[in-house]
Every structure is written in C-alpha cells, then in structure tokens.
Amino acid sequence: MTAVTHATHPIEGQKPGTSGLRKKTPVFMKPHYLENFVQAIFDVVGCKGKTFVLGGDGRYFNDSAAQVILKMAAANGAAKVIVGQGAILSTPAASHLIRLNRTDGGIIMSASHNPGGPTEDFGVKFNMPNGGPAPEAVTEAIFERTKELSAYHIDTAADIDLDRIGTVRLGGMTVAVVDPVADYAALMETLFDFDAIRALVAAGFRMRFDAMCAVTGPYARDILERRLGLPEGTVVNATPLPDFGGHHPDPNPTWAHALMEEMFGPAAPDFGAASDGDGDRNMIVGRGIYVSPSDSLAVLAANAHLAPAYAGGLKGVARSMPTSAAVDRVARAMGIEAYETPTGWKFFGNLLDAGRCTICGEESFGTGSDHVREKDGLWAVLLWLNILAVKRHGVAAILREHWKTYGRNYYSRHDFEAIDIHAAERMMSTLKAAIPTLPGTRVEGMDIAAADDFAYHDPVDGSISRAQGVRIRFDNGARIVLRLSGTGTEGATLRLYLERYEADPALQDLDPQEALAPVIRAAHALAGIKAQIGRDRPNVIT
Ligand code: VG1
Ligand code: CO
User: Fold this and answer.
1) Whose CB among 150, 155, 468, 477 lies 3.0–4.6 Å from 501's, allowing a Cys bridge?
2) 166-177 pLDDT per residue, tens
C-alpha cells in the first residue's frame, strides 16, 4: 500500500475537445496514456486534501480506468473520492453529486454518444466544483501539462470492490461508494410535480424510453417505472453494457430508429424518449411526430412555469450558436434575455452561476437548467411529462400550438462524418477567407445579409472564444452555419446547420428537408462541399 512514481514521457495528442479527451479505447489503454492525462488534471487543479466525484457511463474500460484513477488520487494525496457503485454515474448525476457534496470537482469517464467497446471510443473529462465542464483555460492548461510531465504517482494497493456500497480506505484516502441513482432521483422529485405525472399515468398515459444500453437505464427505471408508476418494460435497453449492445448510443432519428419506428407505427404510445451514452442528451418523440431539439428547447422554455421548480419564471435562456432561434422568440415574448454561446455545455456555466439564465440547450439533443451544470436527458423528459400532465394535450398539439404562436423555425443538421481532415480544414479556411465578400451576394434567390466566424464574448468573465463556426444569415431570416466537430475520433466531421423561419400556419407542416431545400442548395453552392471534401450527401441528418 505505497505510492510509487512512474517515470513517463510526455504524450502527444491529448488535446481535449468540446467535452474532454476522447480517443479510441486502444489508445487510452496504451501504457501510461490514461495515467498521463489524469496526472495532468491533478497537477493543474490540485489534489492534496481534496474531495472528488468519480463515475462513468459503464463503457468498456470504465471499471479498470476507475481503479487507476482512484489509486492515482490516493497517491496524489486526495482526501476522499465519492464514486458511483460499479463506477457508474450519468454525467448529470455526477454534476449533481459534485454540487451536493460541495466537492472540488469530479472526473467523468465517458465518450458520451460515441460507440463503446474494445475498438470504439473512451473518454475522460474533468468537471469543476460548480459541477460543470472545465472551461477552456483549464482544459488548455491540462493539455499543456500533458506535454511536459515526466512522472505520475499511483498507489500499489489492490483493486477495491466498487460493487459494494460503503466506505473503504485506499492508502490515506477515503473511498465512498454510493448509489448512483438515489440523490439524482431525489433532486428530480424536488423539481417536478410527480403527483400530476402519476395522475396522468393513472389515466392511461403510456410512454417508451429507450436507454440504448447506456447509463440512463437504471435511472429511468427507478424514476419512470418505480416512482412514477409507468408499467414495467416502459424502459427498454435498460441494462448498461460495455459495448452498448453494439448500438450507437446517440439519441437521434438515425441511431434511435427502433424508437422512431414504434412512435410512427400503429401501436405508438403517447410519448417516446431516448438518451445517450452518458445520459446528458435526450430525444423527444410524440405519437407520429418528431420534436427537433431546437423546438424542444423552445417548448420547454415557454412552458417551464408549469413545473414547480420554474413556477416563478425564468431568469433568461441560452442556446448554442448553431441551435435554432426558436427559443429566442419565446424569450422575446417573455421579456427575458436570450444568450448565444459557442457549441459545448461549458459555456453555459458562467451564465447559470451568475443567475443570468435558467434554461439552456443545444441543437444536438441537449437541454438542461440551473439544477446542475450539465445537460440532462432525463430532466428534459420529466419536464415534458410535467407539461403534458398539466396541459393534457398530446405532443403534436403542443408543438402546433407553439408554432402558431411563435412561428416555426424549420431546422436540420447535416453531418459529414469521417472525412479527410486536411480537405475539411481547407474547405473551412477557403470559406472563412470569403466571408468579407459574402454580404450582398445572391444565392438560390436569397440575399446574404451578414456573414462571420462566430466569436463569443463571455458577459460574465470577459473571456473571448474565437473561430466557433461560420454563420451566414440571409435577408429572409434563413441561416447557414458550418463548423468542424470537436468530439469525433475518426478523421474530421463537418456539421452543416440549416434554418428557415415560417410565420404562416398554413405552411408550418412541411417536411423540414423540403422546407429547407433552397437553404441546403445555397450551403453547398457557397462552401463547395462536393468539390472540397468529395461528398455531397451527409451520412447523418437530424
Ligand atoms: C457535439 C455537439 C455539441 C455537444 C458535444 C458534447 O460536439 O455538436 O453540441 O455539446 O457534442 O455532447 P461537436 O464538437 O462534435 O459538434 V456529449 O453528449 O458528448 O457531452
Ligand atoms: Co452525452
């Protein structure tokens, strides 16, 4: 039971992306690779005498990585680590535990919506004492540290039993193994009207929740089936598996196609939802109708006051830049501030901490509020349930009523995955160079009003984040955004975001791809996608 110090060489390429460090699992399993990154985290945030939270989404390597991280925390002098039983914690549950126990932060093991398994993806991220992802200054410092550190510290103790709830010692450190669900479920009960939802269920309301063999299974079972009384079997794919059962745990119409088929089929229940690998994303589907995440954010903001936690109104709302402006219209009607931040949840943290906004969201199936500092898949599902329980309307009726009131922002994202990195970068720099020439240009019968490479000025700490994506806005309110993904692990991924506003209720029932056709053509014409990356069709459309 002694701490040893391993000499190691700096490791290249440990640059964290949009949310932490993500690599292929075999890369993470290389000798000293995980250790190097974890030591860099401890060196930057400090470890001696501190308390951290630790957990992950249960993917392959989750359990052995947890043992390594615990032994390193002990050898680096941490006082205590609170770890989810079986090394399991959803990202929002980890965020809650960090805050609830007033800890010094936490380490979350996940590559989120990326597939898991021996040849798939693994990831590690550090969350701050506020429960939110580390800001850029911290992730940059961690990255710099990975390039220079020459040794790491690790305890030589045997593995500890993470399946047994209770407190044990590891070297000089306390390890508290806790139920991963209990505190999170208790928090949800304080936010929503569980009695109203139970009454809805008693009246015959039925839903399907697809946990995609990822981390939300145990949470959804406890909350939906046990506490809210939905029938057993409401939650499918409820057991977290190391390879997510071979699924791609990304809740969108492409990867959650089984849920889509059920919701559009003859035996569709009233409501359907799915969550991602680490439980921070959500997809919402009504009977025969899909809710785009941007619309979901707007509907939640417009109706949040129906839930006890938000009955006093919202302080403000925030959305990531590529997310549609639907929520901005709600904010305008309510007379509250709407913030536009770069992609990634970390940018919402300052606004939430400063009390400037209550609800935030991203087009990538992420919604959340000031109850934690991460996006929260089940939270969004429960807020929808609370709204449905009060309104006693179906999802389709709520959505149509929303569009009639605020207009509809037709929206879609086209992803071109695993493309050549150099071609993708060349395409983006050519487009960026053309930005000054774009305003006034006419394309597909639409005039460009403005174009820029989005830079965010954080209103709370004054920091500036540049080059967050190219935005092109047209006179008619349509918008195109292009950026490269920061979470992919294979080649590059180009994300093309498309949006068009429609105020006329008679024209609000089109297929989004049809409604956006001119905008899609304009994007291809302006960026020369086919010529630059050799593909004209996206492989995922959401
Ligand atoms: C993607 C999404 C982004 C999200 C991020 C992390 O990033 O577009 O909105 O915040 O994933 O989500 P990128 O850089 O690949 O576009 V998760 O569920 O991995 O925490
Ligand atoms: Co996620």
Assistant:
1) 477
2) 999 999 999 999
